[in-house]
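Progress against Task 2.4 (sequence-to-structure conversion) is shown through the following example record, which the project officer requested during the mid-term review.
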Amino acid sequence: MGNWSLVIALGGLALGLPARPVSAQIDPGGLPATATEFPEGAQVLTRGPVHEAFAEPVVYDPRPSPVVPKQPPPQVEEVAPDQRPEGTNVQWIPGYWAWDDSREDFLWVSGLWRDVPPGRQWVPGYWGEGDGGYRWVPGAWTAIAQQDVQYYPTPPASLEAGPSSPPPSPNSVWTPGYWNWQGDRFVWRPGFWIVFQPNWVWVPAHYVWTPNGYLFVDGYWDLPVVRRGTPFAPVYFAQPIYRQPQFVYTPTISLLASVMLTSLFVRPSYNQYYFGDYYAESDNRAGIVPWYSFHHGRRGYDPMFAHYSVVQARSDPRWLDRMHDDYRFRREHPEARPPHTYIEQQRIVNRTTINNINVTNVRNLVMARPISQLATNPDQPLRFTRVDAARRQELTRQAEQFREFRQQRLKQEHQAASSRERPNVRDQAGLPANSPNPPSPGDRPRRVGQFRSPIAAPVAQSLPGPNPVRRSLDREEPRNEARQQRLEQFKTQRQSTEQLKDQEQRRQVEQLKAQRQQEQLEQLKAQQQRQHQLEQLKAQQQRQHQLEQLKAQQQRQQAEQQRGQQERDQMKAQRQQADQLKGQRQQQLEQKAQQQRPKGDGGDRPQRKKKD
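Structure tokens generated for the chain above:
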């Protein structure tokens, strides 16, 4: 029990939740002993995608996800665990396959227990074939009150640039603007401040890309991460054991949502969150960025970060700074990053004795725990209840209905997309194929039958908390006919005003577009100048190198000439010395001959001399 008290309490501290006094010693016996408790050929991961039904970021300008070269395997036969969190709207949502770039293969994102948002139904994502491979189409929480489903043309590029005014109070949260379809065109609806709700997370209105167009999801309230359900660890099947007859997979290793937030990332291209060790530079190049970086950028809005940043600001003003520091430290120190598998995590925790210094470090490494331990831990934020056999069989039938619903969506969207001349996707350059001008007459919203998902929750009569939703006049029931007429007049006036604003907004969009193009040109020019300077510097270095080589060659030649001159001088001196020695010897011989010559008349001297 000591290890679980530690993990839950510290996880609560990470989110600003109250913690109870706990022991500071990890109990190794709290973890499974060996890997044999998992199916052979299955590797439980503590790194990977977060189930999209648990949480999704809001991408301002959604694009089609990248194409992967492999066909996804058949669905895994998955059965819900026999324990679930308590709650009226808690339902089991099956898992799905996700592409893993590092392995160049698919991994299984396990199903989860989810407390369904009030008035919402889950429309699951799927893998669609096209462009020489397979592309992921995201899921979404759509409103059950929506009479039918509409697919819109490509919206213009988002004009969202953050708050346009200071917050009216410390309890205010900014919700971004979006393009709203009115009449025959898109009209920009600016963002606004909403009242912060401690027990609810606001998910703003946004669009989701599909092969048939863009699915609009209006804003709604969702539960905080630590209360919205129980996700489970993803699994990599090194061997295709899921193809075996009678194979059934039941997730048992649950993820700790509170600890996930300490290593949470966003991948906009897949419209998904990722958790665990994505600190490497290669992950950043793949477009996986920290959640706080995504929220503060221009690409999208993170509902969870917007919520928890307000929570943390009340108790820890340096929360964001410390998060930056932790990210930089783990990026530069791979040994401080969370493990990639549950078995690696087990080994680390089992051999670590925690003291007051490294409690936080080990806390951030414990990403997952068996659900059996969560269910028996009294410090767990959620309470669990047993799922009997009859209910599990019912969930199995519901999972089959869920698969049929996913196939229905795939077929419906792809048939509608193929019936048109060109799918409504982004252009080949990868930029938003948008324009502030009205769409062409043939490019209008397309209506289809209403989605009827087996995963849904009824509309709440009143959400908990003080005024969590500001009711709109358009949704109130008119008390009398006069009020209805006033509402219609108000709508007409508002549409006229919005149409007048549309021209100004198009002009602003054109200005922004021209400004972006000018900035790109300036950046290109600066890059060319830097390239030219680099080339000049390189040429100068080459010339300097050649001069140095020529100078060295001249020095070698001069040295050789000097050595040759010295040799010649030595030879000349030797010859002169030899000549001198020869002359001296000749003189000595002549002197000796004169000394030996006898004295006599001078007549015979020539003869003697000749004889000699």
